[in-house]
């Protein structure tokens, strides 16, 4: 029979028992004391029984709970009786088990006693270990403190004690490497005594300090004598100062440090002694070098060597003597003088070698050599004083004398210098030297080089203005020569301008460009005035063309673009060539040119303007009869009139091309005349004229 769920069983037996009977069965032994007692717990028990499988089976089988309860109780009593019997049967075993348990309990009690003893002993050992650990830590701390005290005491003793060996070296030893090391040790002891306040209160200091002070005084005295002796060695003639500084003085640099730290008054004396020594030595060296350079100086220009000054008035022919013309030409031309800028890093001149070779130099060469020697000496001295004394300011005290010597010489020369190109070269030299010092990162001569540069520019402007005014105020009558070839003033100007333009290419000085423009206007005005001294306009034009062409050629030969001046001269040259071509053609073919210019070039002429054969026939026959001779004569005129053959050839070609153009217009006019074909036998063919043009172009 299948089991029925508890809920269904309860629902199926509602007709067999009511709620009161069921409650009564569940609480057989309980007495209901009151009808008002709460039944809240009953619902929970009912809900629990719903899901109980055993209860569900009982209800499904229709068994009453009271009967079922009695059956369960009987079963329990039976099981209890069976268990008692089993216990009785096993009583002996249980007694034996009880005895065994009691014996085990006694053994465990003994073991507990032994273990308790062990635990007590272990606790005692742990306490002893803890005590030992505390003692060990205490001993470690004491050891650490003793080591620290020993280290400090050892260092104190080492720093304050004065070994006998130190005394022997300081008092009796020579100043050498060992002496330098001993000085450093002594310096540390002095600093230790002065710096640590605890040392000053120590009893050991009372014994040591007097000895240390005596050693300091002895060291200062010996160092002073040694250093002063080395300084005096710098004054000996022919002494290589830089070698002595680098190999000797720097080796004993610590002596100066010692004096600076422990004897400031003595250090001041040593510093002053070095400044005085080097000031005098270097001043004497530069003074002697300048005197030697003066013997090598070549005088380039005087106050009368100006662009617009007439050659004879300067006494040029009498002043040059055996002096080469090449030297005199350097007044206005740069020439090989530009090479000085390529030799900017070369060593300074050795005067006695140059003098032995009887060599002379323009002042800018001597200027570069002197300035090169100055910047090299200054660089060496600046680096040495900074390293040896640790002071940059000492340099200016030393070089006050040498710079004054160089300044006096430079100012004296500059005051009488009228060489504008030389002054400009010196300006560029100074600029290069400034770059050299900048690359070396040596600022000690910045103010001096700026001062020299500032001195050169006003002098250059003054000399330049002398040249400019010499052109503006030139005496035309004394300058004029009855010669159409280039004037010497033009050559001077062109060479002078080309030189300055070349020196300004990399610098682009706007003020110099402005001054050169003023100079161009002055020379152009002067050339126009000189040209007007010629009686014939043709000669005037030839003169201007020759001078303009020379100027352009020199500007181009200088390797420069010539700037605005060249462009202006090319413009006026082109204009004057056009004028000359017309003048030359007018001289030989005036009737032809007049006829062509008065007749229209096209066929729009009116009846009144029409040309007759009678008008044209003389022109055609005249041209045919003498055009070859005229061209030959123009060729001769060009050759004799123009110095530059290339320019003359271009002028001749331009003239012949213009002549061909005029004659072409004449032939066209003849063709338009009624019956003009009768003149064809007298007309010269264009090919014949071209043949003559090519012939003279080839032979020119």
UniProtKB/TrEMBL annotation:
Entry superkingdom: Eukaryota
Provide an example Pfam family for this protein: Vps52_CC
Instruction: Point out the signal peptide segment.
Output: none
What InterPro entries does the annotation carry?
Cullin_repeat-like_dom_sf, Vps52, Vps52_C, Vps52_CC
Note whether Cytoplasm occurs among the keywords.
Answer: no
Alphabetized UniProt keyword annotations: Golgi apparatus, Protein transport, Transport
Residues in Vps52 C-terminal domain copies:
276-580
**Where does it mainly reside?**
Golgi
Q: What is this protein called?
A: Vacuolar protein sorting-associated protein 52 A
Subcellular compartments:
Golgi apparatus, trans-Golgi network
UniProt entry tagged with the keyword Protein transport: yes
Q: What are its GO cellular component terms?
A: Golgi apparatus
- Vps52 coiled-coil domain residues are 86-259
Query: Would you identify the family this protein belongs to, as annotated?
Result: Belongs to the VPS52 family.
Q: Which BP terms from GO are recorded?
A: protein transport
PANTHER family given in the database record: SUPPRESSOR OF ACTIN MUTATIONS 2/VACUOLAR PROTEIN SORTING 52, VACUOLAR PROTEIN SORTING-ASSOCIATED PROTEIN 52 HOMOLOG
């Amino acid at each position: 029979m299948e089991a029925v769920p508890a809920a269904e069983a309860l629902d199926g037996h509602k007709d067999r028992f009511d709620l009161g009977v069921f409650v009564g069965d569940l609480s057989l032994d309980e007495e209901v004391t009151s009808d008002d007692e709460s039944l809240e717990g009953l619902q929970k028990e009912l809900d629990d029984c719903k899901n109980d499988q055993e209860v569900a089976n009982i209800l499904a089988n229709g068994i009453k709970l009271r009967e079922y309860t009695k059956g369960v109780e009987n079963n329990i009593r039976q099981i209890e009786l069976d268990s008692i019997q089993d216990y009785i049967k096993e009583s002996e075993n249980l007694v034996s088990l009880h005895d065994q348990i009691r014996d085990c309990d006694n053994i465990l009690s003994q073991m507990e006693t032994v273990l308790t003893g062990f635990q007590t002993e272990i606790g005692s050992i742990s306490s002893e270990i803890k005590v030992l650990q505390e003692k060990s830590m205490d001993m470690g701390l004491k050891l650490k403190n003793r080591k620290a005290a020993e280290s400090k005491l050892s260092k104190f003793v080492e720093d304050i004690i004065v070994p006998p060996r130190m005394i022997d070296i300081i008092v009796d030893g020579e100043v050498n490497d060992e002496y330098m090391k001993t000085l450093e040790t002594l310096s540390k002891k002095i600093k230790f005594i002065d710096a640590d306040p605890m040392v000053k209160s120590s009893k050991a200091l009372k014994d040591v300090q007097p000895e240390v002070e005596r050693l300091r005084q002895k060291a200062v005295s010996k160092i002073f004598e040694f250093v002063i002796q080395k300084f005096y060695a710098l004054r000996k003639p022919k002494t290589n100062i830089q070698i002595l500084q680098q190999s000797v003085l720097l080796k004993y640099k610590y002596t100066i440090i010692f004096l600076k730290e422990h004897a400031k008054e003595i250090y001041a004396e040593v510093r002053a002694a070095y400044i005085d020594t080097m000031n005098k030595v270097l001043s004497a060296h530069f003074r002697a070098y300048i005197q030697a350079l003066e013997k090598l100086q070549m005088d380039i220009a005087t106050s009368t060597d100006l662009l617009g000054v007439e050659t004879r008035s300067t006494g040029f022919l009498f002043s040059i003597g055996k002096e080469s013309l090449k030297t005199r030409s350097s007044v206005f031309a740069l020439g090989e003088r530009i090479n000085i800028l390529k030799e900017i890093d070369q060593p300074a001149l050795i005067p006695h070698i140059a003098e032995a070779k009887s060599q002379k130099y323009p002042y800018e060469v001597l200027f570069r050599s002197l300035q090169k020697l100055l910047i090299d000496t200054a660089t060496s001295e600046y680096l040495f004083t900074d390293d040896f004394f640790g002071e940059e300011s000492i340099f200016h005290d030393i070089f006050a004398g040498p710079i004054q010597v160089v300044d006096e010489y430079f100012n004296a020369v500059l005051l009488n210098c009228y060489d504008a190109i030389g002054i400009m070269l010196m300006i560029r030299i100074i600029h290069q030297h400034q770059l050299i010092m900048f690359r070396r990162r040596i600022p000690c001569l910045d103010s001096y080089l700026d001062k020299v540069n500032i001195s050169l520019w006003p002098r250059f402007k003054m000399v330049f203005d002398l040249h400019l005014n010499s052109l503006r105020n030139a005496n035309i009558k004394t300058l004029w020569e009855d010669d159409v070839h280039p004037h010497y003033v033009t050559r001077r100007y062109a060479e002078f301008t080309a030189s300055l333009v070349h020196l300004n290419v990399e610098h682009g000085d706007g003020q110099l460009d402005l001054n050169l423009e003023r100079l161009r206007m002055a020379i152009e005005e002067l050339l126009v005035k000189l040209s007007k001294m010629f009686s014939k306009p043709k000669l005037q034009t030839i003169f201007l063309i020759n001078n303009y062409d020379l100027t352009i050629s020199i500007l181009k030969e200088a390797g420069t673009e010539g700037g605005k001046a060249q462009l202006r001269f090319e413009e006026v040259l082109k204009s004057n060539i056009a004028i000359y071509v017309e003048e030359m053609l007018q001289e030989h073919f005036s009737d032809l040119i007049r006829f062509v210019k008065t007749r229209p070039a096209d066929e729009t002429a009116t009846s009144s303007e029409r040309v007759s054969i009678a008008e044209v026939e003389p022109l055609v026959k005249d041209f045919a009869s003498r055009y070859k001779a005229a061209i030959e004569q123009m060729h001769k005129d060009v050759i004799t009139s123009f110095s530059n053959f290339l320019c003359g050839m271009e002028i001749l070609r331009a003239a012949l091309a213009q002549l061909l153009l005029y004659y072409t217009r004449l032939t066209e006019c003849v063709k338009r005349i009624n019956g003009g074909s009768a003149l064809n036998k007298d007309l010269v063919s264009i090919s014949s004229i071209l043949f003559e043009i090519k012939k003279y172009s080839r032979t020119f």
